[in-house]
Hints:
Layout: H1 5-48, H2 50-53, H3 55-74, H4 80-114, H5 122-141, H6 143-151, H7 155-176, H8 183-209, H9 222-256, H10 259-275, H11 277-295, H12 299-326, H13 328-336, H14 343-358, H15 362-370, H16 374-396, H17 407-428, H18 432-460, H19 465-487, H20 490-501
Helix pairs in contact: 1-7, 1-9, 1-10, 1-11, 3-4, 3-5, 3-6, 3-9, 3-11, 4-5, 4-6, 4-9, 5-8, 6-8, 7-8, 9-16, 10-14, 11-12, 11-15, 12-14, 12-15, 12-18, 12-19, 14-17, 15-17, 16-17, 18-19
Amino acid sequence: MAVNKRLLVLNTLFSYGRTLFGGCLTLFTTRWVINALGARDYGLYGLVGGMVALLGFVNISLAAGAQRFFSYAMDVGGDEVSKWFKTSVCIHLALSVVFLLLAAMLYPIAFNGFFVIDEPRVLACKIVYWCAVASGFWGLLNVPFNAMFIAKQHIFELTILNMVIVILSFALAYLLLSVSGDRLVVYAVALAAINIGAFLVQMLRCCCAFKECRWKGLPLERSRVCQLLSFSGLTLMGTVAYLVRGQGLQIIFNRYGTPALNASYAVSNQVSGLTGTLAASLTNALSPGIMSQYGAGDVKGACAWAIRSCKFSTVLTLIVFIPVLGELEYLLKLWLVNPPDGCIEFVRVMMVSAVLTQIVTGAPILVKASGNVVRYEILNTISLLGSIVFAWCCCRFLGFSARHAIVWIAISTGGCSLISLVEARRLCGFSLMAWLCQVGVKGGAVGIAGVVAALFVRSLFTASVARVLLVSAASFIVVAAASWCFLLLKSERDWLLARLRGNCVVGR
């Protein structure tokens, strides 16, 4: 599939710009929010309103399913895209209503002894809960619109909107320091308003920009509903398992640990998210092309680009991972001044989890492109839910410390990565040996070279901002040079050079 070179360049530039700009603002945002709320209330927000923090993952996960059908339909022409879009909107409207009903059913259970919350904070936490539910409802409804932007390769528009959200969240965190009253309630309500407003703007823009999104009197075909419902339902199963794992961990910290552990987990999620953001930017730009290649019957080409996606993601992840992990203790103290209890070890584990996800990033794209996701989602669900059940048993019956439960997150993430590789091989002929040689072995060698360079520079200076910059520069130069000479094939180097010149064709 020939990719619009202008859109690919825009998508990548805006994504990287958003990563750098958003990352800088997020550092101040989190610090100010923790200072304004305190570790206890920040931990309670993570426990009760955690679905807001995970909302982006839910949307991306479900949008990938809808995007697959949209991308396939674009090669057919006619009203195919419009029909699939209408079907997707109807299904996600139903899912949103189901989500709302489930939230209403869980509400009395959660606040009648399940959550351990001091009595004076119960009312505030109830408001946080319903704000999270409102954001979740509109987030699910927004999935088809988000998927259309990705399928049309207008990812740069999503990036601009995300930057606006980051800026507004930054302003909210700054204003929160001077707000009187219950700051937890103010933060929850304002953040929900920002998210819901962004969803509504995205829906309106999608309807104006793409004619396929304008409601037409097209029939709602049962066969399409069954296909999309089956695919989205299975994708939702894996997403719900991911949510349960995250919220289950928060509950374990709440019941068997301290509020500071909830706050540390929230911080670690943010840092680990930044670890893979650069890689995700390029992956999102390549994903529509890989899916379209597979849909056009070029399975071999799709597999080749999936391997390349893994390579590029590995390099971009290492560029962030190595200096941050090496200077983590100093950076957290510089950022948060007094990091919550367990923060450093939590961040380390979650960053490793992010790396395990990014080194296989092309495999899940192939699995979703094939459409045969039943076994893939079931195995992922077992891995995710099994890890949190085991962690709970260790704390409840074996007397393990709650802070050790975080280790099972990394273990289950590694399990999910292995599952995606095996399923991509089974369904699409994805070569595990090629991945092991080109990504596992060579990528590992590049990572070791970057770590050695970072440790060498680190040993020459005392802890300071200057040392952080020098370590980052050294690891970047070594990782970039080693990747160019050792990791990337000549065809991949040629593709990157062509991309810099503006000649980008996925599949060559």
